[in-house]
Amino acid sequence: MAGIKINVDDKEVRKALDRLADPDLIKEALGGIGEVLVENTRDRIKQGIDVDGNPFTPLAPITQQLKKKNKDKPLVHDGYLLASLAYQLVNGGTGLEYGSDLPYAALQHFGGTIRPKNAKMLQFGKGSGIFAKESHIPARPFIGLTQQDEDEILDNLAHFIDNQLK
Fold this sequence. Notes:
Elements: H1 11-20, H2 23-47, H3 61-66, H4 80-84, E1 86-90, E2 95-99, H5 105-110, E3 112-114, E4 122-124, E5 130-132, E6 135-137, H6 147-164
Antiparallel strand pairs: 1-2, 3-6, 4-5
């Protein structure tokens, strides 16, 4: 055979790649991603911006009037939505889901119309005397992957992988 032949001992490279494929490390990496998504989503809600960086649709004047606190902050009242944001590993620890399990979270995210179920009118604020046949909630998308999220996740993953290979 003409030319050159080099034998490479790749045992260490294979061991490093095997370590990266360890299910516990994958779970750890996904947990880090979940933390980034939850924290960045909370920050966006507090800042009043959606996943595209646009300000949330302002609250209707009647909503501001009825709120006892955070009158100018969509999606923020007592902090239940912020506190409900969470992530969980799925598919045996190879996948990640994040969001909120509050019944009204989807309505706040996608928007929609509320109509009374067992009455002729909706009542807003106990004893307020304010009634309506329906109420429209504008979409305020707060769940999603932003460029900031993606950049932060990739940076964290690079550090994570680098630390595993040492």
